[in-house]
Amino acid sequence: MSQHKFSLQNVTLECGITIPEVVITYDVIGDIQKNADKVVWICHALTANSNPEEWWPEVVGTGKLFDPEVTPIVCANILGSCYGSTGPMSINPINGKPYRLSFPLITVRDMVFVHEQLRKHLGIERIYINVGGSIGGFQTLEWECSYPGTAEHIVLIACSAKASPWVVAFNQSQRLALQADPTFVSEDIDGGKDGLKAARSIALLSYRGSIAYNLSQNDDRNDMVTGHRAATYQNYQGEKLVNRFDAYTYLTLTKAIDSHNVGRGRGSVAEALATITAKTLVVGIDNDILFPTNDQKEIAEHIPNAQYAEIHSNFGHDGFLLEWQQLERVIGEFVGRRS
């Protein structure tokens, strides 16, 4: 694996603001030149980085579904993130300080625009498989709507064609948690940690749902009145995110999620999806409460000749990261039949 940086000058965002320089950190696993017609591009989700071997270890690696010896892998840290790409913690060239709350609105289309420039920079004529789960699926879908024919296959996992009111409401609840932290509002150094911890706690409820919590966080003792496992788990997961992420990036990326709508400026969602020519697999997760399977079925219904597959997970939306054996089966069958 090798990590690189790609720079673009004067990037004008969908909101109309121009960023003088955008830097995108990306990873390449395998040799693109050796297998140029088999490149797999993985679009990562909300708080992930550009190294899918780290957060999707059962799917990416030698002898696995995406084997870099066979299918070179590219993953770019999204615009607005904090793992090396330009985002709220980057230095604003105008005043020499981190942007923080002054960072402009980023949309999924802005992320995809930068991905497309990177694809051209890398000399990839056509992506063999473009795959993404959750907000990664937003990127994969928007990419094929914005730049038709860029990929031969696309795999969309646990996502939707637009951000639903349900998703926006969860995101706004998390942003309210950030804004309730006075250190976030005052833009202190490392500000917003308490708010981010609370926001993560809210998000986890949407990722897992009641089935997962009742299975994995159940207390064995019958006499408890405090100190419950579920409460400890929420604290632990909040601290974990605070130690690797920042509140201003979280604000930026949740707003980017809200922006997602492939039908914007294209007549309607159905009309936009109908233009997709890539061979498409849409994967739903039966117990996903954040992106219920109706969201994926809508995508599959409107993309010509798309396939729909459903996997089972007691862990809801997080199944796209955890149910690797089922994903390996449905994606492997799809590519084997349609390539």
From TrEMBL:
It is found in: Cytoplasm. GO terms for molecular function: homoserine O-acetyltransferase activity. Substrate binds at R200, D318. Residues 39-321 form the AB hydrolase-1 domain. Pathway: Amino-acid biosynthesis; L-methionine biosynthesis via de novo pathway; O-acetyl-L-homoserine from L-homoserine: step 1/1. SUPFAM superfamilies: alpha/beta-Hydrolases (SSF53474). GO terms for cellular component: cytoplasm. Its main location: cytoplasm. Transmembrane segments: none annotated. The active site is at S134 (nucleophile), D288, H317. It catalyses: L-homoserine + acetyl-CoA = O-acetyl-L-homoserine + CoA. Belongs to the AB hydrolase superfamily. MetX family. Transfers an acetyl group from acetyl-CoA to L-homoserine, forming acetyl-L-homoserine. Homodimer. This is Homoserine O-acetyltransferase. It comes from Williamwhitmania taraxaci. The gene is metXA.
